[in-house]
Amino acid sequence: MALIKCSECGKEISDKATICPNCGMPLRLEDRGTYDVIITREKQWFLVNPKIKVTVDTTNEYILEKNSSITVPLTTGAHTMVFSSGIRKTQTNIDVTENMNINVKFNRATGEIDVNGYKTVSQTNSPNISIGIGGGLFKGGN
Ligand SMILES: [Zn+2]
């Protein structure tokens, strides 16, 4: 087992690792022209905490359970991700140039799916959801 240096935190880690155990950064796969996009569902406590479906480039579907993350290998360039749960849908267009982390959570006030932590090209939420619907789904709120 060889040791390599994590480019993020500088700690020596196994070259077999997929994620730095020290800082959590995914290791680069640039020799294959592919990067790891790690999508993490932020920890939130709700009585109702539905799954979020992630559709990448209109064909590849992933399910994001609560308190979980998925790794999506993507080639360099533009990709589309749609995060949906029931009638809530957030579409993001991303430009992949490196390994990246994306954080996803429900907005407690509006019920919309908030997506952040990446280089945004554009993002649209649909439909525009009133606070009433969010309040009905998410007991407790802020
Ligand atoms: Zn590290």
Automatic annotation (TrEMBL):
It comes from the Bacteria. This is Zinc ribbon domain-containing protein. It comes from Petralouisia muris.
